[in-house]
């Protein structure tokens, strides 16, 4: 038998792989005995594991280098769907293997060598995932050696459970009753910490009691479900969105004493100086806005657009006192009309011999400056002031709505009767392809945004859950249209089209 030829490049290896698979597919297996058939089946299982491991390695390098970006895709998963023509489920599986083998290097090496099947590799990785990094790698080594020694699958699972329980016994947690404090249920050790970055993003750390953990798990199970083939979120992302959904429902239900059930209010800050000169703010003003938007609780960009879609909008025209300008204005007034040049006797002939009054002291100057500032504020604020005049003429809806003192306006929100009509029509999330999230977990979306002239009326509104509204539409760039037959159509930025089958026929539940 001639020695196998070693490929000299990845392209050469791919050509040899295709040639080998073509040879196996073209063979007449009925002419071979069962022993040969069994050997090939066993070899194919090892080859499948090797293919999965190799794909994970290539995908990891491709993702790290951003290889999907030149083709205009936002992620490696989207690139695989559109360029390799596989389903979302298959792409999700490939990304899942890449992440799994990144955490389980030994498992990946064993699969690449054909020493363990793909299914057993997945089981071992799942069993050892709860362990921290060093212990996880050691547990993988023990289980792989046991599998190589012929240990069956059920006994392998028992060994993995024993390893995990042994580690837990050596590292008691706050809620397992193994500590020395006598706190058997871990209630005294409960804690939760929320940290926020300059941009408002957060990180949560803590230890939960069994009751709190069970409640949180119930939220994940109910609101973090996979919503269909178009739902490309990871498990962690779905759990994050489930928590955000639950918190939004709590606030909207009016169960927080401070909120009183108020809906979202989006405030748009507009520098007055930008309105006076040009719609495009100066570099300094933009830096100020960016600093304000970075404070906790403020949102901008895509997040602001998503939040304002189903929110009341308040427009606030801002301005700050420039004290140097105020002093200059006061000095100009004094020089032109102040007491230094006045005629106390009222003489108009120019021959007055009265002694001029003394110059204004600091206290009098300060009072005059305050009076001039108040008059300037009256000129710029109020329904007929300069700020309102510029805002209503330079900005479009909804930011040009009727104002409140001092020029704080509220645009017309979605009226309750129209909101109810949308709910009665759609009954649940109207995303094409099937999403049955009930109205309580949905938001009303303007199909044509209000910023682009979209009207708040029934044929321009749709009911969508948090994921399809905030993620798919406002972040991933999907557009949704309501067709004349009552069906919805969603189009991705890459041209993928989803269509619903028909208009609802039953009453809203």
What does this entry look like structurally?
It is a single chain. Among the domains are: 129 residues, no CATH class; 84 residues, no CATH class; 48 residues, no CATH class; 84 residues, no CATH class. 48% of the residues lie in helices and 10% in strands. The chain is built from 18 helices and eleven strands. The chain has a four-stranded mixed beta sheet with strand order 3-4-6-5. Strand 1 and strand 2 form a beta hairpin. Helix 2 packs across helix 5 and helix 9 packs across helix 10. The protein is elongated, with a radius of gyration of 34 Å. The termini are far apart. The C terminus is likely disordered.
Question: Ranges with pLDDT <50 over ≥5 residues?
Answer: 174-182, 258-262, 293-297, 403-411, 502-509
- Give a short account of the largest sheet: 4 strands, mixed
**Termini gap:** 72 Å
Class per helix and strand makeup: alpha+beta
C-alpha Rg, in Å?
34 Å
Order of helices and strands: HHHHHHHHEEHHEHHHEHHHEEHEEHEEE
Spatial strand order of the main sheet: 3-4-6-5
Strand content: 5-15%
- Residues in helices, as a percent range: 40-55%
Overall average pLDDT: 75
* Morphology: elongated
């Amino acid at each position: 038998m001639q020695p196998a030829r070693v490929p000299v490049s990845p392209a050469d290896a791919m050509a040899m792989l295709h040639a080998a698979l073509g040879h196996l597919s073209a063979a007449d297996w009925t002419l071979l005995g069962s022993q040969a058939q069994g050997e090939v089946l066993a070899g194919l299982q090892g080859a499948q594991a090797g293919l999965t491991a190799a794909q994970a390695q290539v995908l990891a390098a491709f993702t790290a280098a951003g290889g999907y970006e030149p083709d205009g895709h936002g992620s490696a998963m989207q690139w695989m769907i559109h360029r390799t023509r596989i389903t979302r489920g298959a792409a999700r599986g490939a990304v899942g293997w890449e992440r799994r083998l990144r955490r389980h290097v030994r498992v990946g090496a064993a699969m690449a060598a054909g020493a363990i099947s793909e299914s057993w590799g997945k089981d071992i990785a799942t069993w050892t995932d709860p362990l921290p990094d060093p212990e996880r790698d050691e547990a993988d080594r023990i289980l792989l050696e046991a599998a190589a020694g012929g240990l069956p699958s059920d006994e392998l699972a028992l060994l993995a459970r024993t390893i995990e329980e042994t580690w837990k016994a050596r590292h008691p947690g706050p809620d397992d009753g193994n500590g020395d404090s006598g706190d058997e249920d871990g209630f005294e050790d409960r804690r939760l910490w929320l940290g926020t970055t300059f941009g408002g993003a957060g990180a949560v750390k803590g230890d939960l009691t069994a009751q709190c953990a069970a409640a949180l798990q119930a939220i994940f199970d109910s609101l973090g479900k996979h919503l269909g083939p178009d739902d490309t979120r990871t498990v962690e992302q779905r759990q994050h969105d489930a928590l955000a959904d639950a918190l939004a429902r709590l606030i909207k239900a009016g169960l927080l004493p401070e909120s009183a059930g108020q809906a979202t209010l989006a405030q748009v800050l507009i520098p007055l100086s930008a309105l006076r000169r040009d719609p495009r703010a100066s570099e300094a003003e933009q830096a100020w806005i960016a600093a304000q938007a970075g404070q906790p609780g403020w949102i901008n960009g895509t997040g602001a657009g998503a939040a304002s879609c189903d929110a009341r909008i308040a427009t606030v025209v801002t301005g700050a006192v420039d004290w140097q300008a105020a002093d200059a204005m006061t000095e100009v007034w004094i020089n032109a009309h102040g007491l230094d040049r006045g005629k106390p006797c009222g003489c108009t002939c120019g021959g007055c011999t009265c002694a001029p009054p003394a110059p204004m002291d600091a206290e009098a100057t300060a009072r005059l400056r305050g009076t001039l500032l108040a008059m300037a504020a009256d000129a710029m604020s109020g329904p007929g002031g300069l700020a309102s005049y510029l805002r209503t003429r330079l900005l479009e809806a909804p930011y040009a709505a009727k104002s409140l003192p001092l020029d704080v306006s509220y645009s017309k929100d979605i009226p309750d009767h129209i909101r109810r009509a949308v709910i009665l029509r759609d009954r649940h999330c109207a995303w094409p392809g099937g999403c049955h999230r009930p109205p309580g977990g949905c938001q009303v979306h303007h199909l044509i945004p209000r910023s682009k002239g979209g009207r708040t009326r029934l044929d321009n509104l749709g009911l969508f859950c948090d994921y399809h509204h905030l993620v798919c539409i406002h972040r991933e760039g999907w557009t949704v249209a309501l067709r004349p037959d009552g069906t919805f159509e969603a189009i991705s930025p890459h041209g993928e089209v989803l269509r619903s089958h028909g208009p609802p026929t039953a009453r809203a539940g």
